[in-house]
Amino acid sequence: MSIPTQWTPTHGEPFRPVPYRPPRMPLQESLARAAELRERMDGRRTVRQFSADPVPEQVVRDAVACAATAPSGAHQQPWTFVLVKDPEVRRRIRAAAEEEEQLSYAGRLGEEWLAALRPLGTDEVKPHLTDAPALIVVFQQRYWLGEGGEKRKHYYVDESVGIAVGMLLSALHLSGLAALVHTPSPMRFLSEVLGRPVNEKAFAVIPVGYPADDCQVPDLVRKSLDQVLVEV
Ligand code: IYR
After folding, report:
1. E-assigned strands of the chain?
2. Is the pLDDT reported for residue 18 higher than 80?
3. CA-CA distances (angstroms) from residue 144 to 24, 150, 180, 194?
4. How far, in Å, is the centroid of ligand 1 from the Cα of 80?
5. Whose CA is nearest to atom 1 of ligand 1?
6. What is the DSSP string of 120-186?
7. Which of 174, 226, 218 is nearest to 40 (CA)?
8. Domains and CATH numbers, the chain
9. Share of the chain above pLDDT 90, in %
10. Quick one: how far is CA 223 from the chain centroid?
11. Is the CB of 216 under 6 A from ligand 1?
């Protein structure tokens, strides 16, 4: 399993701006694209039942590359994406996740949380972790760790990685793949199974694939634009 080389920060370098002149999109095109994108994004659903069919790996890599264009605190890009294809590693992740989830659903979550989850139909059984042909495990680099053990602070890590995951989900969906943001809790086992360094903390496990032929999703209703947008 390859471990990406750590990025070296440009810490302390002077500001050397370069021109940015993207061509302005014509109004009609902008309106049409926005409306189309809105409709396509509304078609995204979190999927928990995956087909075992393989996915085009380049599509997944391109989606990760899109995610890695996210803005980040001080442009520190504090993320690592581990693409897990090996079925044995996926089995180990599933076994460890289910062990934690059994404790969660048996009471650790508490009645109020369980009631909130009831309409989603989730439980401690996580077949998506082995059925989906790929998992993207997203790690946050809580701080930068140099080769010689030196550390540097990272800023707004939660926000940065959250934005990157949003962009990842959008890229996967718009490229025709389904995904699920799974956050087993606690997630320490992911660092152990995937051999990640101490400065990295698991953020989410994202199974990626095609929905199973008999896939079902909860009958969710999204808030309307009026309910989420305040214009002043
Ligand atoms: N991590 C658990 C529980 C869970 C929590 C939330 I908040 C969800 O939106 C869904 C599930 C699980 O994966 O089942």
Report:
1. 79-84, 134-141, 143-145, 151-153, 178-179, 200-209
2. yes
3. 37, 8, 28, 19
4. 22
5. 184
6. GT--S--THHHHSSEEEEEEEESEEE-TTS-EEE--SHHHHHHHHHHHHHHHHHHTT-EE--B--SS
7. 174
8. 50-211 (3.40.109.10)
9. 91
10. 22
11. no
Distance between CA 178 and CA 134 in Å, rounded?
11
- Rounded to the nearest 10°, the torsion over CA 61, 59, 142, 2 is -30
Work out the average pLDDT over 146-155: 91
pLDDT digits (tens, 9 = 90+) for 82-106: 999 999 999 999 999 999 999 999 9
Cβ of 101 below 6 Å from ligand 1: yes
Its pTM stands at: 0.95
Using one digit for the tens of pLDDT, what is the confidence trace for 26-35? 999 999 999 9
Please say if the pLDDT value at position 8 is more than 80.
Answer: no
C-beta separation of 203 from 139 below 8 A: yes
Please state, in angstroms and rounded to a whole number, the distance separating the CA atoms of residues 104 and 6. 34
Give the strand order in the sheet containing 200-209.
79-84, 134-141, 200-209, 178-179
What does the alpha-carbon distance between residue 130 and residue 48 come to, in Å, rounded to a whole number?
Answer: 11
Neighbours of 13 (CB within 10 A): 7
* 93, 122, 180, 185: residue to mutate for ligand 1 pocket, most atoms within 8 A of CB: 122
Nearest protein Cα to ligand 1, atom 12: 184
Helix 27-42 with 157-174: angle, nearest 10 deg? 90
Q: What's the gap in Å between 113 CA and the centre of ligand 1?
A: 9
102 lines ligand 1 (CB under 6 A): no
